Amino acid sequence: xxxxxxxxxxxxxxxxxxxxxxxxxxxxxxxxxxxxxxxxxxxxxxxxxxxxxxxxxxxxxxxxxxxxxx
Length: 70
Prior knowledge:
Elements: E1 11-13, H1 25-34, E2 41-43, E3 46-50, H2 51-60
Antiparallel strand pairs: 1-3, 2-3
């Protein structure tokens, strides 16, 4: 089961506050330097994230736990 957190059709700018849910702007910069974290696109110095890529990354990062059943 997948739940979209981000609008799959939207292109997010690195300065958009909605991205703080996955990590601070500094943390995202570290991820890009280390080539980890969600996929991104660069236009010169501008960094963009595609909503569909963010949703895929969030799904892969999901931790499954043993939730008790009622």
